[in-house]
Amino acid sequence: MALSAAVIGGGISGLASAVRVAGLGHRVTLYEGEDFLGGLGTTFGYQGGHLERFYHCILPTDTALIALIRELGLESRLLWRGTSMGFMYQRRTYPLNTALDLLRFSPLTFTERLRMGLMGIRARRQGLNPELDEVTAADWIKGMVGERAFEILWKPLLSAKIGDQYPALPALWLSSRMNREKNTGAEVKGCLEQGYRSLIDAFERHLRERGVEIRLRTQVRSIERHGDLMALRTDDGKRESFDFVVATSPLVQFQRMTSRLGLDPAISGLKLDYQGVVSGVFLLDRPLTRYYWMPFVDSGATAQGAIEMSNLVPLERSRGLYVTYLVNYTHRDSDLFRKNDAELLALYRRDLEALFPDARRSVVDQFLFRAPFVEPIWTVNYSRIRPPTAVIPGRLYLACTAQVYPRVNSWNSCCEVVEGMMPALAAETAAVQVGGRAA
Ligand SMILES: Cc1cc2nc3c(=O)[nH]c(=O)nc-3n(C[C@H](O)[C@H](O)[C@H](O)COP(=O)(O)OP(=O)(O)OC[C@H]3O[C@@H](n4cnc5c(N)ncnc54)[C@H](O)[C@@H]3O)c2cc1C
After folding, report:
1. Rounded to whole angstroms, how far apart are CA atoms 415 and 241?
2. Most exposed among 159, 165, 184, 275, judged by the fewest C-beta atoms under 10 Å?
3. Which residue CA neighbors atom 8 of ligand 1 most closely?
């Protein structure tokens, strides 16, 4: 007998959960508060096409995501391309990809460059050693390369990913990231020929074909008990019951929705804050650099760095224009996050024009997007407090970014959390079928 299931959230965690739960034969209703699917990977319309609101790429090691892309019939649309990284220091750009680049990186002393090289080898050897969970990334790096090299090179790289919350990051997070990104020799990144829109649309088609009901513009306010069942209260005042629920909202929102369920304090009281993001998207009539991404360090810029997406994504997607993202990872309560779109765009335009004089004449269009809950701010020993996916076995599950640790926050890691949740979910909901519901 099929059970009724609700999935909360239409980002990758919700879409992947809905595919898997519907695959078990259950009747699924997916709730999404916005009027679009895709969550942080969503797109905006541009000149008859679609561009990502936030820069997104796929890595060859993203096996769970690539498997889903294959299942949805889009694997032949995956494009792979060699990419590279630049590093702007005091307004001068350095390539930073090979051992030779590192040896030539003159902001560091020769000894510091050698220590940096050794760090790469040591970090790879340590891999995902659980002891790395107990120390901060900052202390781990300083121990290997020294204070000065940390300040010049590593601190900006960490802040370019998490902003001013970098001191909290555990070393395990960093080693996981280094393993994900640099374990295949030359850097290669992937994208879909028609962008994330094509993947989100493929998810939607797949779900509708399997009878999944998708309710957009429907925010879930609370998750409650209804006898043995779970009930969702939505912001339109309706209350609906399901045999089980899979929530994929960021942890802080999940805690708010379940505040009256009396959950284990290890989940309800877990303090995990998130960094938000502000991001300017610039369309230019010529490229800025040949690099996919480049942190701006000690260069007087507001942005923490630039991602030049057109060094990965085909130009046809942007009607021949070059797409660059200028980004800040910053808390939703920060002054920067609170600035209005025009102010932020003006700051980013100033960055572009100061750092790349040609940009003054080449910007054709610009857009600004922001998101309040993006990067969980991991703290040391997070492995010990990471919430389980089975919150009330058989009834309530959680698959969200709070559980990707020590993997990096990505579409692939979200898919891995979902795949990891499924064996217990399948068994526990089968027990509900036999015992609770059918009895
Ligand atoms: C600037 C930036 C760059 C990134 N770069 C990459 C990259 O290169 N590669 C990569 O793989 N990943 C990248 N990511 C990370 C990636 O976007 C996230 O890991 C992923 O999108 C998280 O998916 P999610 O479904 O868990 O959460 P989200 O995408 O946040 O989706 C959650 C969804 O749930 C909905 N929701 C929440 N609560 C409720 C509720 N109560 N009721 C109804 N709906 C609700 C929200 O509206 C949202 O649509 C990047 C993210 C950002 C912001």
Report:
1. 26
2. 184
3. 56
- Cβ(30)–Cβ(18) below 8 Å: yes
What pairing do the DSSP bridges indicate for beta strands 229-234 and 220-226? antiparallel
Q: Is 228 in the pocket of ligand 1 (CB under 6 A)?
A: no
Task: Name the segment(s) of the chain with CATH classification 3.50.50.60.
Answer: 4-35+216-270+385-437
pLDDT of 439 reads 36
Using CB atoms within 10 Å of the CB of residue 385, give its burial: 0 to 12 exposed, 13 to 18 middle, 19+ buried. Answer: middle
Nearest CA to ligand 1 atom 25: 11
What is 8-57 written as a DSSP string? E--SHHHHHHHHHHHHTT-EEEEE-SSSSSSGGG-EEEETTEEEESS---
Residue 438 confidence (pLDDT)? 41
Pocket test of ligand 1: the residue of 17, 34, 42, 56 to mutate, having most ligand atoms within 8 Å of its CB, is 56
Q: Is the dihedral of CA 175, 176, 178, 184 positive or negative?
A: positive
Which residues are registered as beta bridge partners of 247?
8, 398
What pTM did the predictor assign? 0.96
Atom of ligand 1 nearest to the CA of 14: 25
7 burial class (0-12, 13-18, 19+ CB within 10 angstroms)?
Answer: buried
d(CA 203, CA 392): 27
CA distance 86 to 101: 10
CA distances 29 to 22, 216, 324, 398, Å, are 10, 11, 37, 16
Q: What is the predicted pLDDT for the residue at 437? A: 52
Residue 158's alpha-carbon distances to 189, 237, 247, 254, in angstroms, are 20, 43, 30, 27
| Architecture of domain 4-35+216-270+385-437 in this structure | 3-Layer(bba) Sandwich (3.50)
Rounded distance, CA 303 to CA 283, Å?
17
CA of 126 to the centre of ligand 1 (A): 30
Q: What is the rounded CA–CA span in Å between residue 363 and residue 379?
A: 40
CA–CA distance, 106 with 95 (Å, rounded to integer)? 11
Question: What pLDDT is stored for residue 160 in this prediction?
Answer: 78
- Stretches where the chain sits below pLDDT 70 are 181-184, 435-439
Q: Is the CB of 428 under 6 A from ligand 1?
A: no
pLDDT of residue 281: 98
Percentages helix, strand, coil for the chain (3-state, rounded to 5) are 40, 25, 30
Q: Is the CB of 181 under 6 A from ligand 1?
A: no
Q: Does the Cβ of 83 fall within 6 Å of ligand 1?
A: no
